[in-house]
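hey so i finally got around to running the thing on that chain from the lab meeting. sorry it took forever, my laptop kept dying and i had to restart like 3 times. anyway pasting the input first so we r on the same page abt which one it is
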Amino acid sequence: MEEALIPVVPMSHTAHIRSHRKPRRSASKIAMRAGVAGGILSTVAVAGASGPANAAEPVTQTLELPTLTADLAAQVAESADATELAAANYELQAERDAAAAQAAKEAKADLAVAKKKAEAKKKAEEAARKAAAERAARDAERVTLAASADVSAPSASASASTPSVTAPASGSVGTVIAFLKAQLGDAYVMGATGPNAWDCSSLVQAAFREVGVDLPRVSQDQSMMGTEVSLSNLQPGDILYWGGKGSAYHVGVYIGGGQYLDAANPSKGVVIQDLSGYPASGAVRVL
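ok and heres what got predicted. didnt touch it at all, straight out
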């Protein structure tokens, strides 16, 4: 009888190593894992069952969202309108404030101009009154001088050494004539300006300087000053000139009674003369 052969399965070359062998799971651990898995599956099932109920809420919220969005858009639009209206009101108020400030500024400027005009008008009226008063005083003074000259007019031969007019102690015309008479007898020297020698224009210039009238230095320019007067309407204090107006070669001052005082020439010096003997070409009035 033959013996049965039992096959020999060779072992792995690592089978003898303990760390390479997987430990078998115990029944208790398998049961525990099955319980945990069953719990998880039941939780998933519950969650799955409650899912449809929970899914209904977003549907409701989704349906209400357009309504909320429309209200929000209306609120935003209303807020934008309110903001725009407020901005327009602010701009209008700013324009009104600017216009009011400009109006106030213009009113202030107009008031200043009006005040200046009023002051200028007042000064002009005062100057006119003063000039009228001075003119009246000069006219009265000239009448007095003319009357005195008519009463006591000397002969032409004696006029060079004897004054024919008694000038008033005060007044513009009287002051001019008084100064001129104080120079009677002084020498005539071309280009001299006093105090003891004169030419015709320097004597006239110095006389009127006594009353604050600044005349040019030469006779040509002096004949262009003041207002032209006719020889038939002469008054004491008028400046006489010989030659053309603006090209005069000699000047003197009318003192009334048909006479004038001048620095005549080197042979006569400062004298009083009759107009009839040496008629002037014209006359100007500066006082």
